[in-house]
Design a protein that fits this description.
Structural class: alpha/beta
Radius of gyration: 18 Å
CATH architecture: 3-Layer(aba) Sandwich
CATH class: Alpha Beta
Shape: globular
Strand order of the largest sheet: 6-7-8-3-9-10
Order of helices and strands: EEEHEEHEHHHEHEEEH
Largest sheet: 6 strands, mixed
Number of helices: 7
Distance between the termini: 30 Å
Bound molecules: adenosine-5'-triphosphate
Number of domains: 1
Number of strands: 10
Strand content: 25-35%
CATH topology: Rossmann fold
Helix content: 25-40%
């Protein structure tokens, strides 16, 4: 199978003598070509959920399947490979490297792994062009607007053509117009290239771009009664 599947996943944290139940028996499947949103109050378990989906954190119980691989069965080396090759992370702040220009932000991982091929450079340029950054390729992050920085981070997340996209509050630092643009870009990538995407958001205006909306409450994930059709 491709995409993400959570099968009765729970996560517990030990806090002194107490055990915090951050995820409580979560089951969910996100198929290729599907864009889902997770909303919910602070502390409800959204970050924990996304970290487990991104193989950054292991579940305490249950099984997580990413593109047919059971994450709990993989060694750290294989987990790193999955993160690098199969998952594109888009975070709240763009986390760009201050001394690299926009083009190099996309190529830095390739550079570290060896030599950047002509083809890879072309791919990076095409991506930046698609995201409206063609005139910004040689600019450093400090000379970009918040929206341009976030679009650079998105281009970077798409660089490896990951089949899974995980976005944690991707619109938090953006104005309304940029926020819509950024989420539309994610939706477009999901639909045109058949990816599976999960977005954690507080921004209800962005839900209309998603296929399904779930609400996290006290570690439980439930489908919401948001009427997406009405939002469109
Ligand atoms: N490393 C940790 N150790 C102990 N408890 C933790 C840890 N990380 C999270 N928690 C607890 O687990 C619960 C879920 O936290 P989580 O960060 O997943 O929620 P969230 O919905 O992402 O919150 P927010 O919207 O504020 O980011 C909270 O009660 C939190 O205090």
């Amino acid at each position: 199978m491709s995409g993400i599947k959570f099968n009765h996943v729970s996560k517990y944290y030990q806090q002194g003598a107490n055990q915090v139940v951050a995820l409580n028996d979560v089951s969910l499947s996100v198929e290729q070509g599907e864009f889902i949103a997770v909303i919910g109050p602070s502390g409800s378990g959204k970050s924990t959920f996304l970290s487990i989906a991104g193989a950054l954190l292991q579940a305490s119980e249950g099984e997580v399947n990413l593109n047919g691989k059971v994450i709990g069965d993989l060694k750290e080396k294989d987990l790193s490979k999955v993160r690098l090759e199969e998952i594109g992370f888009i975070l709240q702040t763009s986390n760009l490297i201050p001394y690299l220009n926009v083009l190099d932000q996309l190529l830095v991982v390739k550079k570290m792994a060896g030599k950047v091929t002509k083809r890879e450079k072309e791919t990076a340029k095409e991506l930046l062009q698609n995201l409206g950054l063609e005139t910004k390729m040689k600019k450093l992050p400090e000379h970009l607007s918040g929206g341009e920085r976030q679009r650079t981070a998105i281009a970077r997340a798409f660089m490896n053509n990951p089949s899974i996209i995980l976005a944690d509050e991707p619109t938090a630092s953006l104005d309304t117009q940029r926020a819509h643009e950024v989420v539309q870009l994610i939706a477009r990538e999901v639909k045109s290239r058949n990816k599976a995407a999960i977005m954690v958001t507080h921004d209800e205006r962005m839900l209309k771009y998603c296929d399904k909306v779930y609400r996290m409450e006290d570690g439980k994930l439930k489908p919401t009664s948001f009427h997406l059709e009405n939002l469109k």
